[in-house]
Amino acid sequence: MTATARVVLTGAAIATVDAAGTEYDEGHVIVEGDRVVAVAPGEPEFDPSARTVDASGCLITPGLVNTHHHLYQWLTRGRAQQSPLFDWLTELYPAWTALDEENTLAAATAGLAQLALSGCTTAADHHYVFPRHGGDVAGSVVAAADRVGTRLHLVRGSMDRGRAHGGLPPESLVEDTDEALAGTEAAIDRFHDPAPNAAVRVAVGPCSPFSVSDRLMRESASLARRRGVRLHTHLAETTEEHHRCLAEFARTPVEYADELGWLGPDVWLAHGVHLSPAAVARLAATGTGVAHCPSSNARLAAGTAPVRDLLAADASVGLGVDGAASNEHGGLGDEIRQAMLVARLRDGAQALTAREALWLATAGGARCLGRQHELGSVEVGKLADLAVWRVDGIGHAGIADPVAALAFGASPPLELLIQGGRTLVEAGELTTVPAGEVARDLAAASAAFAPTSATGTAPKEVLR
Ligand SMILES: Nc1nc2[nH]c(O)nc2c(=O)[nH]1
């Protein structure tokens, strides 16, 4: 399907995720070029010039929006299996010094392909590792998004505080502060497109309080605001980070971010797990978004974000798979279920409904990325980013509520995934890249990263 064709999707259940929560048991969506031109119940008038797709047995939702990822981490999956965040990072940092243009392209293509196969049409990639001889790794992420057809928010990350200055990363992995700022501005110059239908936008993303200096945080915020781009960083992920911020800055992570000018409607934060009621209120009052990463937070035993409280305060909350080294699955559809389950473990059975979980993965994510007027819901005039899920197979047939089938069941197979009117997945297969070749390139690139010992597999625990 090309972006100029008129496509009529008929006979499907539709969850529009618009502000009124409009749903149709059976309806149609018409796409023209890169936009939705009709969403309505029942059958449309027959149009012989259009491609008509019989989507009966399917649920149409907005294409999913991934608000936090580290695509390069596809190269280092399955490591540090029993480690919490700081030990996990300490083990993985040395491996990441081997990143280069070629292996980043292989990892990012595979990561985005996996996201597409799980219903994702827009992805934010927080890329914060720029080895001295790695070449144009940011260019590789952009090239991968172009290949797969994913709308990309490239977060040009940075770290300038190595161990010599009290930070966590090794010196070999940090940039000089001015180089990091210059590299970030260069990424904005090269790749940022402010147009409403942009395929690529750039955000400014110094990594985390324990890997970045105050100066880089402050000057990154100034740079982003001068250039009119968004800001993103890791914050309030673990109790270790919380105590480290208190010890070092006499501030909680959110107080520290506030003092540095890092809260506002142009900021979204990854994780937001350890938030006091005052911090939740402050995030909501400032319009600061949170990328909730439930699987990664469970994998690293970081805790569970207070999503119920954030939503009650009307904060913007989206979903993120996080890097594949802390979420080897790498699919976004499954995070809908995971978000619902962990919210209920934390706050009870009322904590998150299926529809709220779908909202996080779509409209909430679009709000985090500042694109709520362009995408995140199926509405006339919005970009035609659509996921058409097959919910009549063994995994879902018989569940009368299709949104419950999507959220409570296994992530359903995709009949179609459309980004800006262009098909990325059809009948469960990628249409833009050859899956076998992507997997072969990934395997070859990952081989160079294989640990020389069974690092992090804790043989004693495995044998016990
Ligand atoms: N889950 C993750 N948290 C992080 N903090 C940090 O500084 N880097 C990371 C990361 O890669 N994943």
From TrEMBL:
GO terms for MF: 8-oxoguanine deaminase activity; deaminase activity; metal ion binding
Origin superkingdom: Bacteria
Coiled-coil regions listed: none
Positions of the Amidohydrolase-related domain: 60-391
Enzyme Commission designation: 3.5.4.32
CDD domains, A to Z: ATZ_TRZ_like
Pfam families given in the database record: Amidohydro_1
InterPro entries: Amidohydro-rel (IPR006680), Metal-dep_hydrolase_composite (IPR011059), Metal_Hydrolase (IPR032466), MTA/SAH_deaminase (IPR050287)
Group of enzyme by EC: hydrolase
Keywords: Hydrolase, Metal-binding, Zinc
Name used for this protein in its record: 8-oxoguanine deaminase
Species, as recorded: Allosaccharopolyspora coralli
Lineage: Bacteria, Bacillati, Actinomycetota, Actinomycetes, Pseudonocardiales
